[in-house]
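Input (structure):
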């Protein structure tokens, strides 16, 4: 019998993998939306043609401030409803 036949995958690995991919997806969506909104609203505009919200250019307000605020709130819901609290002890010791 080889050592690989004795290997039993820890059941927590699949949950950790799902959590890792959810985090990567959230990060990619954050970059695409914040960057996309900023580019869409601000690319190739002169200072005279820009609109301002609370003293900020609209592209910065919607992309930089509001986009960041939204993506500071979303991880709370990911952690609350998707992530699981798991012991880091070895399964044999539980």
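Output (sequence):
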């Amino acid at each position: 019998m080889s050592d690989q036949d004795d290997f039993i995958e820890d059941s927590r690995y699949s949950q950790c993998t799902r959590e890792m991919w959810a985090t990567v997806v959230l990060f990619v969506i954050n970059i695409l939306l914040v960057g996309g909104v900023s580019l869409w609203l601000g690319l190739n505009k002169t200072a005279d043609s820009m609109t301002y919200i609370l003293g900020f250019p609209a592209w910065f307000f919607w992309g930089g401030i509001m986009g960041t605020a939204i993506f500071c709130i979303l991880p709370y819901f990911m952690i609350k409803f998707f992530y699981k609290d798991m012991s880091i002890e070895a399964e044999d010791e539980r």
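Notes: The two ends are 27 Å apart (CA to CA). Residues 12-42 form the longest helix (31 residues).
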